[in-house]
């Protein structure tokens, strides 16, 4: 396969970033796994809730990234900076509002979603949730700031920020989970471990560092962007409309899509602690498998946005198809190694034989699905959103999730007694439907008619 220099230049730092982030995440999962299956289950259930809002903030970041990519493609530096300011400030306001609402309603939320879970699991769950949900504004700031940097083609700075943040996460989580005890003949330094509370505090410290670091980078300025805080700043409604014309449909799509995933999580919780723990293990490994695809997903957003900013829609289309092929090829190479190693990979997370056996089956299924259908289902909508077709991708994603993943997952998993395997099979049906609809949309070309930005210099 011929390598495109522009794709490699942008995707390379993102691959490095994603690889480090995912590996650190797996190390965190392994550390938490040593606390027992109740702790693993609790973290998995909280992460299912947190992932909804993390994905929501990431979707808001997509709006800023796409708009800035369009302006960057048109060489409009002034509008790039103004769009960055609007994306960061408005995103933080929304994140603070979400945090307050979720914090005040967390008891009802947990009892509604996970009331059937074991009491010990619920006790761990509240400890982990109470700390991690307070980091939502930090997640939003980091996601949006990194998104606007990527919009102008700067993928190295977000890589550096996320690598440092996750390195701190692993170190601080290890110390806070297990404690520290250094002794010598002359002195003793140490403190006790805090278990699952330590895992949450470690993540919180890392997110605070990441948010502070990326904010410092933007305020100091790069070659392309500089975030200035002005007393006379006023929101420009037209610019917000451009950002949230992409960001809002992407956020609704993300919110409802992940809410659907949360419902399938509830199905799995009802299948027992072993299935819940296996679901967490396989999701962690699946994150590693998808590293190149995730990187190419972001690359598609940047390149398609910039091509559309230059009114080069044919180049945007060929780029989407190229990245779909590149993603599938990368996943094939990874799957070649992961498939036969499914059992030892699962064993790294837990000592429970039952959890390992369930996880091994799910890993093999997931490898096959990633190689065959993942790119069409996830790369294409990223490119279409970058071209301004966010409403269509929202409708398709919601339809696939609720009409196929949830219904099919319940029928196969609960009604036909296939358990967690049936739930995961339902998600792959959703992938197939999404992939077909997105590919059809790409070929018909209606996405080319969208208008994302106006020329601010002409309108000034």
Give the SSE layout.
Blueprint: H1 5-33, H2 37-73, H3 77-104, H4 106-114, H5 119-132, H6 136-151, H7 156-178, E1 179-183, E2 188-192, H8 196-220, H9 237-269, H10 273-289, H11 291-309, H12 313-338, H13 342-347, H14 353-386, H15 390-415, H16 420-444, H17 456-459
Helix pairs in contact: 1-7, 1-10, 1-11, 2-3, 2-5, 2-6, 2-9, 2-10, 2-11, 3-6, 4-5, 5-8, 6-8, 7-8, 9-15, 10-14, 11-12, 11-14, 12-14, 14-16, 15-16
Describe this structure in words.
The chain is an all-alpha fold. The protein has one domain (5-450). It has helices spanning 5-33, 37-73, 77-104, 106-114, 119-132, 136-151, 156-178, 196-220, 237-269, 273-289, 291-309, 313-338, 342-347, 353-386, 390-415, 420-444, 456-459; strands spanning 179-183, 188-192. The longest helix is centred in the first third of the chain and has 37 residues, at 37-73.
Question: In short, what is this structure?
Answer:
The chain has helices at residues 5-33, 37-73, 77-104, 106-114, 119-132, 136-151, 156-178, 196-220, 237-269, 273-289, 291-309, 313-338, 342-347, 353-386, 390-415, 420-444, 456-459, and strands spanning 179-183, 188-192.
C-alpha end-to-end distance: 46 Å
Portion in beta strands: under 5%
Question: What is the mean pLDDT?
Answer: 86
Shape: globular
Number of strands: 2
Quaternary structure state of the chains depicted: single chain
Total number of distinct structural domains: 1
Instruction: Give the radius of gyration.
Output: 22 Å
Largest sheet: 2 strands, antiparallel
**What proportion of the residues is helical, as a percent range?**
over 70%
Q: What structural category arises from helix and sheet content? A: mainly alpha
Please state how the strands of the largest beta sheet are arranged side by side.
Answer: 1-2
- Helix-strand sequence: HHHHHHHEEHHHHHHHHHH
Number of helices, counting only DSSP H or I runs of 4 residues or more: 17
């Amino acid at each position: 396969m011929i390598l495109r220099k522009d794709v490699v230049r942008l995707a390379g730092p993102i691959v490095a970033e994603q690889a480090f982030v995912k590996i650190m995440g797996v190390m965190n999962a392994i550390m938490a796994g040593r606390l027992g299956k109740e702790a693993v289950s609790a973290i998995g259930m909280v992460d299912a809730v947190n992932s909804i809002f993390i994905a929501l903030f990431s979707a808001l970041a997509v709006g800023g990234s796409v708009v800035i990519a369009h302006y960057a493609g048109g060489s409009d530096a002034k509008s790039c900076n103004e769009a960055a300011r609007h994306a960061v400030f408005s995103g933080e306001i929304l994140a603070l509002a979400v945090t307050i609402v979720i914090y005040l309603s967390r008891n009802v939320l947990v009892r509604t979603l996970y009331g059937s879970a074991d009491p010990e699991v619920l006790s761990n769950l509240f400890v982990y949730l109470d700390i991690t949900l307070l980091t939502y504004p930090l997640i939003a700031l980091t996601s949006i700031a990194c998104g606007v940097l990527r919009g102008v083609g700067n993928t190295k700075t977000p890589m550096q920020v996320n690598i440092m943040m996750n390195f701190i996460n692993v170190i601080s989580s290890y110390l806070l989970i297990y404690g520290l005890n250094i002794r010598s003949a002359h002195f003793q330094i140490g403190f006790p471990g805090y278990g699952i509370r330590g895992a949450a505090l470690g993540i919180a410290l890392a997110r605070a560092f990441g948010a502070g670091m990326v904010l410092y980078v933007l305020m100091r300025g790069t070659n392309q962007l500089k975030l200035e805080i002005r007393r006379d700043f006023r929101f420009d409604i037209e610019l917000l409309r451009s950002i949230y014309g992409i960001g809002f449909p992407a956020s609704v799509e993300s919110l409802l899509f992940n809410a659907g995933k949360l419902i399938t999580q509830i199905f799995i919780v009802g299948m027992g602690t072993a299935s819940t723990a296996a679901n967490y293990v396989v999701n962690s490994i699946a994150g590693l498998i998808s590293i190149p695809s995730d990187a190419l997903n972001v690359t598609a957003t940047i390149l398609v946005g910039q091509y559309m900013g230059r009114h080069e829609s044919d180049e945007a289309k060929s780029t989407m198809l190229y990245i779909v092929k590149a993603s599938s090829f990368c996943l094939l190479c990874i799957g070649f190694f992961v498939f036969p190693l499914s059992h030892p990979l699962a064993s790294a997370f837990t000592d429970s034989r039952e959890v390992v056996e369930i996880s091994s089956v799910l890993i093999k299924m997931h490898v096959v699905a990633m190689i065959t259908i993942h790119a069409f289902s996830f790369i294409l909508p990223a490119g279409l959103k970058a071209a301004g077709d966010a409403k269509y991708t929202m409708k398709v994603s919601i339809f696939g999730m609720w009409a196929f993943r949830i219904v099919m997952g319940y029928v196969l998993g609960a009604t036909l007694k296939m358990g967690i395997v049936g739930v995961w099979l339902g998600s792959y049906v959703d992938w197939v439907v999404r992939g077909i609809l997105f590919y059809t949309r790409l070929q018909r070309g209606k996405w080319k008619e969208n208008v994302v930005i106006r020329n601010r210099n002409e309108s000034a």
